[in-house]
Fold this protein.
Amino acid sequence: MVELESLLTRCKALAPENGGDGELEKCTALEKWLCENGFSGGNVKIERFDAPDCRVSSKIRPNLVVTVPGKSDDFSVWVMAHLDVVPAGDLSLWSGDPWTVVEKDGKLYGRGVEDNQQGLVSAVFAALAYIKNGAVPAHTVKLLFAADEEVGSEYGVIWLLKNTALFRKNDLVLIPDGGDSKGETIEIAEKNLLWLKVHVHGKQAHGSRPDQGNNACTAAS
């Protein structure tokens, strides 16, 4: 797990909005690691679904899907994590290179190790436990490692929903993006944005007689 976290952290998967070149290097490294560590061959399938994006050098934003067939395929159990990270920020505030994992006091430090590589790595090793032990899950398990989560998901989950038939109505989706130290908390919703437009009407008056008017700016405040 530490090895995989270290590998992923070295790949600066930043969106172009954050001055980066996308997730392809990280996705390629992850796919190679999966193939070398038990996910190749048999019934396990690895697929790429690339969203076009002319702003990055590769012209694509990769989305990786791993399928572990189950005894039943009437619905799939998805575990969804994202490949991209946020910028490292002020480098003087880091005690070392943010793109190199440091293990200290039983914890890992580096850009992306928590958001969202802990979710990605835990999903990989949970699926690997099935594969290594020759166990077949009750239902098909699918791992989704998506692009573009940090700046809106337009080239990740939203693109997949619009351009593929990957998801079925009865599928279950688990997103290990947060929680507590015991792993007991399960959310069914998360914070999002609500955009409101408010129209405030005032009454115009001369500057010398504000008492005859109704100041729209004051009402809006």
